[in-house]
Amino acid sequence: MLNRDFTNQAPTMLNKVLIGIQNKSPRRSVYSLVLWTGLTFIFVSASTYFISQSRPAVDYFTHHESTYDSSANTNGPNPLLTTEGIDQFIHDHAYPRLGESANFTGLRQVCDSTKWQKNVYFTCTHNLGGLINVRNMVLNCVRYAIAAGASGLILPLIEARDPTVLSRLKTGEYQSMQFLFDEDWFKKVMKTNCRQMELLDTIEDVPHYRYATMPDLMNVQSFMGQPPGSRQGRMRNRKPEDFRPRFDALIKSQSKRPGERNPVIVRLDDRTLFSWPPSFDSPAFANYFGFILEFRLDLTALANIIVSRVRPTSSSGASKDPYVGVHLRSEADAGKYWASWDQLANATLSAAVESDIKHIYVASGDTDGVAKLAKKAAESGIKVLDKWGVLLKNEKEYLKPFRFDQLAIVDYLTLLESDRFVGSGQSSFSSHILMRREFIANNTLSTDTKNDNGKPRDQFAGPGRLAYWDQDWP
Ligand SMILES: *[C@@H]1O[C@H](CO)[C@@H](O)[C@H](O)[C@H]1NC(C)=O
Ligand SMILES: *[C@@H]1O[C@H](CO)[C@@H](O)[C@H](O)[C@H]1NC(C)=O
Ligand SMILES: *[C@@H]1O[C@H](CO)[C@@H](O)[C@H](O)[C@H]1NC(C)=O
User: Fold this and answer.
1) 276 and 424 belong to one structural domain
2) Nearest protein Cα to ligand 1, atom 7
3) How many domains does the chain contain in total?
4) Which GO terms describe its biological process (predicted)?
């Protein structure tokens, strides 16, 4: 566990702060009043939004007995709890991943045509919330670092939510990116395709970091002179093309140019969710940028195990047992206007009946809702499964200690592979699965041949949907 308080202490500690980014307006008092009123409003609405968005209750904590348990697996030490055992398990089950067929030419082109600035570093520390929101925030931070031409990037961190009070996102518990993502993959892809940007493990690895100039935590929207967000536009940066000129002006306004002995370290705040519109970049870049992040290998392997058991392939490879995946986002904290249990259950059962599918894989924190779904499905001879019901004893023992958002990885990947998918249009987790499935179908990017029959017929149950497509990277 990394506990890095430097992110808050650094400015006072180093006592070298740039001219406040937010204090540049000549009509400062009027401006501040408006700004503060606006910020307060936005903060209240945004935090409500974040809390609701960022609780993809993709897991429920009932550990019922696996229907796949075999006696061979119940005795003796658990190999998954040894380094060699888990390495072997990863080797056997985690590959291939989609990222391995991603085309990073677009990323390389952007990096090759960027004007890089020596001795300028970015940190991406305040990434918090649900799995998919964290992913978006990390990607956006890296995108801003590239836009700024920062020649150094400190490996992103993740602020882990409170395990007992899931709505408490701001905890000050900073974890390495390995908490959710495959760090080696990220390093490899960036080194290969964006070699101009050096990756540093920690802020202490910046040469002469004690003498660094550290502007206040940067809030992109106020830096851009844009309103912090609206109901539709959320935190969207309306003019990404202005970021670089503004950034250059900021650097120029310093008394000293960034140098080896006085580097500049820029730290983005926790308001980068949905900030960068992917459509600003060429499809060659935007389509594959998200693949610089892959989820951690051990949980990927477990998800693949689940898929292989829910959908066994006969030895001839001819027939497969398909399943409907549902993100049953009907927990108590879901908004009033979100898809209801009725709508989600109805859409899921209809999809199964329509396609003559006999298995449903469910991800949900709504224990009662899952039980109700299982009961209703049974009436049509359909079986409802979740990860705890599919994994074997040793696997469950390995998975159990993982945190809420880590467990979400297993559900995300299992739902991604489903033959039909039903989710809630108001959930960023559901929305991303739908977008990625569409992306995979469009690009015939696949780990197997499941798209033979064309695009998956996915659906959102319930009213409306997030204006998601140009808010997040596929
Ligand atoms: C990768 O993307 C680039 C840029 O869009 C394209 O020119 C190239 O053909 C692609 N490579 C493959 C193998 O698809
Ligand atoms: C879903 O709802 C419609 C309309 O209310 C109903 O006719 C249908 O039978 C429901 N389907 C299932 C599978 O419950
Ligand atoms: C998939 O292709 C369709 C048709 O070209 C397009 O409208 C849609 O945006 C694509 N989806 C993704 C996620 O790339």
Assistant:
1) no
2) 105
3) 2
4) fucose metabolic process
> 70 and 121, same structural domain?
no
Instruction: Output the furthest CA–CA distance in the chain (Å, rounded).
Output: 75
How many angstroms does the Cα of residue 112 sit away from the middle of ligand 1?
16
Residue nearest to atom 14 of ligand 2 (CA): 346
Decide: 343 in ligand 2 pocket, CB within 6 A: no
Class of residue 381 by CB neighbours under 10 A (exposed 0-12, middle 13-18, buried 19+): exposed
Distance (angstroms) between ligand 3 centre and the Cα of 406 equals 29
Q: Is the CB of 101 under 6 A from ligand 2?
A: no
Residuewise pLDDT in 10s, the chain (474 residues): 333 333 333 333 333 333 333 333 333 444 444 444 444 444 434 433 333 333 333 333 333 445 555 544 556 899 999 999 999 999 999 999 999 999 999 999 999 999 999 999 999 999 999 999 999 999 999 999 999 999 999 999 999 999 999 889 999 999 999 999 999 999 999 999 999 999 999 999 999 999 998 888 999 999 999 987 655 556 889 999 999 999 999 999 888 889 999 999 999 999 999 999 999 999 999 999 999 999 999 999 999 999 999 987 655 555 578 999 999 998 877 777 889 999 999 999 999 999 999 999 999 988 899 999 999 999 999 999 999 999 999 999 999 999 999 999 999 999 999 999 999 988 999 999 999 998 988 887 654 544 445 556 788 887 777 767 789 999
**What's the gap in Å between 443 CA and the centre of ligand 3?**
9
Strand ranges across the sheet with 150-154: 198-200, 150-154, 117-123, 264-267
Residues 268 and 304 in one domain: no
CA of 346 from ligand 2 middle (Å) equals 6
* Contact (Cβ atoms closer than 8 angstroms) between residue 61 and residue 403: no
Q: Hey, what amino acid is at 30?
A: V
196 lines ligand 2 (CB under 6 A): no
